[in-house]
């Protein structure tokens, strides 16, 4: 293994020259020569309009690109090159060292199993544990995401929870193996603004307590300004701007970022839902 310099020592994820293409034509390229890195305890916000390549970037990191997509470049996670791992190796990493939170918890949760069982199984997929031990870990995870009466709620089904509570269940699942990295792709987009704010606060609190690194994908600059230490702005798969959140928000260097900032709607159409 190569020696790493001190500057890179706590680097969790280092993406270099990542490209993703769906064919040989230049127009088939959906992620174009991206480079960025993420340290433990930091959140990198990846922003861009629909179709800018945010999800393809996160899927490339998780090894979940559609089979017809061709990825090139380098994705180093700790001392592993993710683009060179087998499907089996990637399955071992996902859900263990890398936790994932998606936009729509209903499509990620199985409607036929209780939420507690699903969190416990996410744990047992990577750890040797009896069902009693896994249940204890799952109840603790439900507690950590502020689900009241977790012992009782353990036996409830996904449809018995509100959208915000289901997203908390997904976060509990993503955290149950204490990952080093969380990839969250539009985790609050389906929620109304009040619940969204609660989930963002939960994520930032959990990050402060655990030191997990977070890649937070959103089209919403207002959300990114709430959670991100660093920001990467994408357009048509290309990096338009990168820097600390402070730099990007106070002095955007790129005209496209300024355009996005100007276009950010005021988020005051919130409905109170209290879930
Ligand atoms: N299977 C596919 N074949 C060809 N092109 C695809 C395929 N899947 C996605 N794309 C294209 O890849 C580009 C990037 O898509 P991606 O899903 O990463 O965008 P995104 O930034 O996540 O957008 P959104 O905000 O809508 O989620 C889009 O132009 C999309 O049309
Ligand atoms: Mg997307």
UniProtKB/TrEMBL annotation:
<dbReference type="Pfam" id="PF00005">
    <property type="entry name" value="ABC_tran"/>
</dbReference>
<keyword id="KW-1003">Cell membrane</keyword>
<keyword id="KW-0067">ATP-binding</keyword>
<feature type="domain" description="ABC transporter">
    <location>
        <begin position="15"/>
        <end position="261"/>
    </location>
</feature>
<dbReference type="InterPro" id="IPR017871">
    <property type="entry name" value="ABC_transporter-like_CS"/>
</dbReference>
<dbReference type="InterPro" id="IPR050388">
    <property type="entry name" value="ABC_Ni/Peptide_Import"/>
</dbReference>
<dbReference type="InterPro" id="IPR027417">
    <property type="entry name" value="P-loop_NTPase"/>
</dbReference>
<keyword id="KW-0472">Membrane</keyword>
<dbReference type="InterPro" id="IPR003593">
    <property type="entry name" value="AAA+_ATPase"/>
</dbReference>
<comment type="similarity">
    <text>Belongs to the ABC transporter superfamily.</text>
</comment>
<dbReference type="GO" id="GO:0005886">
    <property type="term" value="C:plasma membrane"/>
</dbReference>
<dbReference type="InterPro" id="IPR003439">
    <property type="entry name" value="ABC_transporter-like_ATP-bd"/>
</dbReference>
<protein>
    <submittedName>
        <fullName>ABC-type dipeptide/oligopeptide/nickel transport system, ATPase component</fullName>
    </submittedName>
</protein>
<dbReference type="GO" id="GO:0016887">
    <property type="term" value="F:ATP hydrolysis activity"/>
</dbReference>
<dbReference type="GO" id="GO:0005524">
    <property type="term" value="F:ATP binding"/>
</dbReference>
<keyword id="KW-0547">Nucleotide-binding</keyword>
<keyword id="KW-0813">Transport</keyword>
């Amino acid at each position: 293994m190569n020696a790493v310099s001190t500057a890179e020592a706590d680097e969790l994820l280092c993406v270099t020259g990542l490209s993703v293409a769906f064919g040989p034509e230049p127009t088939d390229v959906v992620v174009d020569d991206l480079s960025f890195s993420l340290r433990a305890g930091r959140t990198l916000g990846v922003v861009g309009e629909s179709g800018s390549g945010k999800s393809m970037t996160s899927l490339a990191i998780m090894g979940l690109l559609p089979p017809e997509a061709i990825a090139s470049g380098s994705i180093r996670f700790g001392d592993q090159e993710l683009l060179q791992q087998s499907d089996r190796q990637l399955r071992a990493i996902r859900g263990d060292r890398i936790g994932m939170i998606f936009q729509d918890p209903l499509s990620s949760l199985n409607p036929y199993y209780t939420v507690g069982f699903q969190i416990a199984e996410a744990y047992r997929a990577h750890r040797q544990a009896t069902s009693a031990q896994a249940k204890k870990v799952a109840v603790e995870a439900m507690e950590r995401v502020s689900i009241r009466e977790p012992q009782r709620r353990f036996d409830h089904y996904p449809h018995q929870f509100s959208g915000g509570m289901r997203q908390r269940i997904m976060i509990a699942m993503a955290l149950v193996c204490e990952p080093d990295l969380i990839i969250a792709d539009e985790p609050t987009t389906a929620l109304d603004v009040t619940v969204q704010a609660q989930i963002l606060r939960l994520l930032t609190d959990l990050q402060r307590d655990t030191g997990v690194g977070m890649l937070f994908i959103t089209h919403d600059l207002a959300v990114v300004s709430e959670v991100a230490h660093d920001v990467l702005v994408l357009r048509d798969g290309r990096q338009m701007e990168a820097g600390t959140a402070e730099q990007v928000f106070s002095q955007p260097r790129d005209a496209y970022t300024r355009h996005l900032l100007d276009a950010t709607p005021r988020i005051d159409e919130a409905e109170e839902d209290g879930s």
